[in-house]
Every structure is written in C-alpha cells, then in structure tokens.
Amino acid sequence: MATKSKTITKVEIEHLVHHDHVQEDAHDDDHEESFVSKYIFSQDHKMISRQFLITAIIMGVIAMTMSVVFRLQLAWPGEKFAFINALLGDKWGKDGILDPNMYLALVTIHGTIMVFFVLTGGLSGTFSNLLIPYQVGARDMASGFLNMLSYWFFFASTSIMLCSLFIQDGPASSGWTIYPPLSALPEAIPGSKLGMTLWLVSMAIFVISSLLGSLNYIITILNLRAKGMTMTRLPLSIWTFFVTAILGVLSFPVLFSAVLLLIFDRSFNTSFYLSDIYIGGRPLDNVGGSPVLFEHLFWFLGHPEVYIVLLPALGITSEVIATSSRKPIFGYRAMIGSILAIGFLSFIVWGHHMFMTGMNPFLGSVFVFTTLLIAIPSAVKAFNYITTMWKGNIQLTPGMLFSIGLVSSFITGGVTGIILADSTLDINVHDTYFVVAHFHIVMGLSAIFGMFAGIYHWFPKMFLRMMNKKLGYVHFWLTIICAYGVFFPMHFLGLAGVPRRYYTNSAFPMFDNLVDINEIVTYFAIFGALAQGVFLFNFFYSIFRGEKAPQNPWKSNTLEWTTPMANIHGNWPGALPVVHRWPYDYSKPGNELDFIPQTVPLKEGELDGGSH
Amino acid sequence: MSLLVLLAIVLLIIAGHQLLKIIELSRSLKKTKEWQISDSDNNMMGKAMLLFMFLFFAFFFWQVDRWISRSLPPAASEHGVKIDELWDANMYLVTVSFLITNFFLFWFAYKYRGNHKNKAFYLTHNNKLEMIWTIVPAVALAFIIIFGLKYWNEIMDDATDKNKVTIELYAKQFDWTARYTGKDGKLGETDYRQISGTNSVGMDTTDAFGNDDMLVRNEFHIPVGRQIELLMRSRDVIHSAYLPHFRAQMNCVPGMITTFKFIPTKTTAQMRKDPYTLKMMDGINKQRAKFNEEPVEFDYLLLCNKICGASHYNMQMNVVVDSEEDYNAWIAKQKAVKVVATK
Predict the structure, then answer these.
(1) Contacts of A304 (CB under 8 A, 6+ apart)
(2) Which segments of chain B belong to CATH 2.60.40.420?
(3) Within the 211-230 window of chain B, which residues sit less than 8 Å (CB to CB) from chain A?
C-alpha cells in the first residue's frame, strides 16, 4: 500500500479510498465491463479523450472540405466543377456551380465547426481530458459521469449541426457570428429558417457540454492533485487548461443567454435585437431592440473564445518545446503570469470587434487600450519559447516541428493583431480579407498546429503505439507550406479592400487584378487539404498497426509517463505517485540522464527549479 | 469523369497498400525506432527549418514586390492620408518584429538541432531578459496606442464644419439609396412603418423638412474639399457602408443612425489621372482583356461590408467626387421627392 506520511490531508484520504475502490473495480472490470460501458458510454477520461479527438477529426475533415468548395468558387467563379455537384447535388450545386446562399452557408458552418467543434471541443476536450488526470496525478476526473455527459452533449451538438446540412432551406448562413437581424429573420436569407434554429439548438447544447467539461477540469486540478503537486509544480499545459476552463465557465453562459434571447426574438416575437425593420413587404412590430446588444453579448464570449482555443495549444506547445529542447521552459513563473494576464485581459477586449458598429467611439478607445495591452504577455510567451530553444539539444520530433510551427504562426498572425487592434487602422481593413488572414494564422493555424503537436506527442499515451515519424515529417512540411500559402496572400487581398464573405469578387472591376492571388490561395488550399490525407492515414493506421510504444518515448518528466503502457482504470496500478519537483528538470547539471521525472526526490541541498 | 475518379481511387488504394507493406517490412529491418530521433533526423529537419525560413521570407518579399502595388490607391480624404501614414509606420514596425522573431525561431531550430553528443544548457529564467522583453513591447505599444487614439479621436470628433454636406446612406437588401437634404439643409424625419412602393426610404409624410429631400440611386456625387457627413440607416439587416478609397467605413444598423465624416481631397477626374491609379487600372484592364471584358476607368465605390444575404457580394454604388461647380450643377438637376402630404 501507499506509504503514508504523518499528516494526511483530506484529499489524500479520498485518493486512498478511491484507489482501493478502484483496485477492486479494476479486477472486476476485466469481467464485467461491456462494450457499451467501455467504448461508448465510458466514464474513463482516457476513452472520453479519444472520443473527443476522433469526433473532432471527423468534423475537421468536413469543415476543411467545405473550405475547398468555397475556395474553388472564389478562384474560378462561374466555372463548373463536377466535385461541387457531386457533393451538393443539383439544388445547391447546379451544373457544378455553387449557389450563393450555399456559399454563405458553407462559410458559416466551416467557421462554426472549426471554432467550436474542432478547436474548442476537439482541443480542450481531447487534451484536458487526457492530460489533467494524468499530469496532476489523479485516478480520473472529479466526476466521471459528468465527463461522460460532456462528451455526449458534444456529440449531440455536432450531430444536430450536421443534420442541419441536409434540410430543405439549407443550414444557418449568416456567418459564424450570426448577427441579427440577418439571423433572426427567415425572410432575410433561407438559412435563417430551420437551419438557424438547429444552429441555435446545437450551440445551446454545446454550451452545456463545454460547461460540464470545464467545471470538471477546474475541480480536478484544484482538488485531485497528487501529493507534492503544488500549483507551482504543475506543467504549463495544466495551467493553460485551468485558465481555459475558467474562461469557458465565465463566458459560455453569456453566449447561451445571447442564443436564448435570439431564440425568443425568432420564435416568440420579442424585440431584444430587433427594431424598425421592414422586410418581406411589411413593417415588423418589433421596436426598441438593438443588434449591437447581440454583438456585445456574442463577443463577450467570442473574444475569450479566441483564448479558449489558443491557450490549450500554447500549453501543449510549452510541454513539447521543453521536452524536445531537453531544457526547462524559460521563465516558468513569467509564463504562468502571462497565461493569467491573457486570461484576465481576454474579458475586457471584446469591443475591438465592434469599432465600426456604431458603438460609442470613446468606448472604442478603451478597447484599443486593453487590446494592445494583451500583446505584452503574448510577446513574453513567444520570446520565452524562443529562449527555451536557445542552447538546447533540440530533438526534432514531429510534435516539436508542429510546436515550432505554432510559435511561427503565433508571431506572424499576432503582429497583424497589433494593426487591427488600433481602431484608426481598423477603419479600412475591418471585415476585409486582412482580418481573415489575421485570425486564421494566429488562431486557426496556431491552434491546429498545437493540436497536431499534441497528437504526435501523446499518441503513444493514447493508443499505446507510435505514429510513423517519416509520415509525420511529410505531414508537417506540406501543412505549414500550404497553410502559409493559403493565408499569407490574403493580407494583400485585404490591402486591396476585398470584403470577406463575398460570393465572388467579380462584381467589382476594382478586384479584377486579384484573380491570380485568389487562384494561388485555392491551389494551396487544395494541396493542403490533400496533405491531411497523410495525417489521417498515419493516425488511423497507427492506432491498429503502429509500432508498440515504450513507457516514456520522449524521455519526459511529467507524471503521465510513469503510468504503465496499458489503458487501465485508475491510471496507476499501485499507489498514486508522489511529486518532488517541478516538471522541467531537463539537462540539469550533475545528473547523468538529461531528464529527472517529477517523482524523483530532490537531492540533499538541491533546489526545486520552479522555486524562484 | 467518374471513371477517372474511380480509377484514381483504385490506384490510391493500391498505392496505399504497397506503402503499408513497405513500412511493415522496413520496420523489422530498421535499427531506429519510431520514437528515436537519430542525429541524421535532427540534421535533416534542422536544415529543413533553415531552408524553410529562407523560402518563407523569399515568399514574403515576392508577395510584397508583386502585390503591394495592387493595394488601394493612396487615400483620397484628409483623415485617410493620416491613416495611411500611421498604417505605414505600424506596418514597418510589425514587419521588422515579424522578420526578427521568425528568424531567431528558425535559426535556433537549426543551430541547436539535437545531437547525441550534446547536452542542453540548463537555464530556468533570467529576470533581466524577461524585463527587457516586457518593457520594450510595452513602450512600443504605448506609442502605437497614443498615435492611434489621437487620430481616432480626431476622426470621430462630433464637431462638424459649417459648409458640410449631409447625406443619408440608406441600405437595404441589396442596394443603396442616398438622400440629400435639399435647400433647407435638413433631412426630413423617417418612420419605417410608412415605407411603401412610392416611399422607399420611409420618409415621414408629416414632416415638412423632408419635402425638398432628394433621393439618388446607383451613383451619388459629393464635392471635393468639403466635409461630407454621412448618416447611415438600414431597412432590414445590418449592412456596412465601406468607402475604401476614402478610408471610411461604418455599419448601417436597423433602428439606429450611425455617422461617419470625411473630407474628399481628389476629384474623380484627378484620381483618374493619378499615376498610381493609372498603373493599377492598367493591370485591371489587362486582366479584363483576358476575360474579353470592356476596359474600365477608375471610380470611387461604396461597397457593403457586412454579410447581409445572397447578393451581399454585389451591393454597390458609384461615388463621384466633383469640383464645387460640377457638384452644384449636378445637385441642381436632382428632383425633390415631395412625399409630404400637402396640407
């Protein structure tokens, strides 16, 4: 049994009790656990994490395919593509030409899926679930049952969103930000009929899923840390998951209320967002509401959402960069400080999405100030990553390549954020392709690179096998080349004044000289999408036939690598590990090996690395 | 076509199958395992990082070289010139930081690529360094904030010139209407319930100020050198009045009147002779010739820049900047709407 210290805290007792219980369970499980309780309605964080990941991958492929469809339209408007007709049929892709309403629908659903289902549900759902119990040294999440519900609400939400693709009037099509009145009035656009209702229902369920997950993450991190795992010995990944979960808990309910009020406006004739509207040949009765209210509520979630997407990716990267550079993460405490600062500031910057909405210009200037402040902790993080690599002994694993890719895209997309945060400069590029380029690079690419880094790095933990290294390399290089090839040229479209969400740029002669830019973007998009085939193959093939992984393939310090190479219930077969040091003792002088796991006691007189 | 697709799929499956066989065969022969990153792996990937950096920067400069001349022409409004200056200053700053930080990132990835003989340098933190890269960005951002807000306050200032021209831009799916004040200098009140076939912008028929208001579609004229005060309304959903050549933009929100003010500095005729514009139009017309389309001349444009429905991409209006005389001649020809009931 576990060695007991003299002072046993309440948490420890719970651990011990839980642990005993688990051992019995583990014994029984071999006989009793059915297919359903093991693979479908599982309460095990490892299985739930894999469920989230595979759902997110499927959703990602769907959303990526959508982007290829509308990129074809943007590069060659009016051209006939059998591909489009095959996917969308005669109704939305007659003769292979994309229907304008369907174009908007695809843009909307592409954004929704990517932001919520891939980068929120997929990223947090996968890695918070996998790593929180593992890295804090817990048997499982605080509530396995709520955790299971979190996944199944997520599944229901994705299913409803996918169903909305197949209804008569098409899915929601007022942009992923669903500003009313466009999203509130079925007369305004076909997508605002049943499609919008399904979007709203799906999103309400998604919020429930996110809240169940986030509460669980927070409680697990606060209450179920192993003995010796103080907050300042937590890996940075856990810090980011923690702050992300807090952001989610505080901001998603606001989206929920925004969605609820929109449902009221749509279905029960209230006027929260509607006023003075004449549409479909008649004036509406609604008076006194304001769409700007919706924008405030939406972006009160929407901006923290950017960091809900980004922070877990940064956390994953922190682990991968430190492990692969064989060096401690540079400035551990400064990194925690930056995460907290970013988390706090992310709540007071939402107005920078609304400089041009008719919001009071003075209020706009407050948001300029707070938004530009957020560049400081972001810069600190980027510099600290680069310094971590300085004088390292960098093992260029596929995960490390993607982490370097993340730092690059975080910088490249981040610097244009400084431009867009400046309300004066935003006047002319607001809602143009400059914005599309900015957020795809800083949020989309960074987060997806972080997700890939996490998949390559923790695949051995998730599936007990290795992914193919060479295919990982090929995947990385094709992906980063195509990703920059797609999104970098978009800056120049923005500089030429091209608005986003235009079905075609051919209606304005002033955009005629941009044809070749649009073609280049589309070529890269197609190749980039095809390149993901390399990943999909590697992923699914390795699940079943990959090389068997050793216990600690990357020679990492964190606790998950002390678990046996079997996905057992309760994670550790014996006692829970006891933590003696911070997670970043890589290449510490005076040690033969270049890593010291967190479970190794400090030598006499040795200072813990994080205690500065 | 479908035969080709089928063939491609079959070939892909065969190729995949062969690939699998190779992988599985080679695994048993291989000395290194999937998790072992050999020195030659690190060497190759480290060099690839450096190569990528050069390609990335080359791609960046290639794009700037080729495409920056397709940016919007220099601003044709007073505040726009300031925005352009501020834009350039900021853009240089961020471009330099983009290049420097990306350089160090990829350079370090190359320089410190792993080797089994090396050991990393144990370094946990350095307060001085961290202070430097907290304070340097903070100072740079302070300048950005100060200049940005200074111009923002000037642009958004409530005060208006005495000789301003007030024009209402009325947006609906999917076109624009401009309403001029007429001689009284005032726009009549509006009421959305009174919208009808003959009263398209919903003027209040009881307000006499509206009687001399003039409605213009497809193209509206403004005089050079005078302050243009745009008041924006929308009939149905949110639109956004985007006048990129004047660096002007504001959403049109149902239930609200939003405003934007600017002073145009170049007439359409002047702009058509501007060397930058000429070169740009030359490029545009060359491309149009390829599509067998008529050559065009430069025009100022009003675009919709907020998703508003199926024809969002084609919600446009021409803007003509006239000299004072031309403008007066043009406005004299416009007819009042006369929607107010005669009492």
Answers:
(1) A247, A248, A250, A251, A346, A347, A350
(2) 165-333
(3) none
